[in-house]
Amino acid sequence: MDAELLAGLRAAAAKEKANVEIVAPVVGGVDTSDGNHIAADQKLEGAPSVLYDAVALLTTKEGAAQLANLPAARDFVSDAYAHCKFIAYVGEANALFAATGLDTHLDDGFVRIGNGQRPATDFLTRCRQLRSWGRQATIS
Is 4 in contact with 33 (CB distance < 8 Å)? Predict the structure, then answer.
């Protein structure tokens, strides 16, 4: 994941007095763009998105392709959608959205961050609403 983007998300969360946890496919954690390794707080298979108020998908393109092949990752994302959670994401997460069928359902509850898109602070500000309630009308 992009180290600078993660740092921005953590800083924005701290201002909102919100917690950030790293959920990864393995307990060992993830590598960041600056060459560091961050330990995971939770393993993907043991931390469904229902445990969180919002989620952020900060994966690389290669990571998204790997996650797209993992049932727990697909469930994590599709459940977050079904529970009307705000979902921050980077453009590289598109393969994961495609694997869940959500690539054509990106609504106002999805906030693209990084790479000249919205800053993480915009995502956290939107999370004050707790859920993307407008999505309920589209889920059947």
Answer: yes
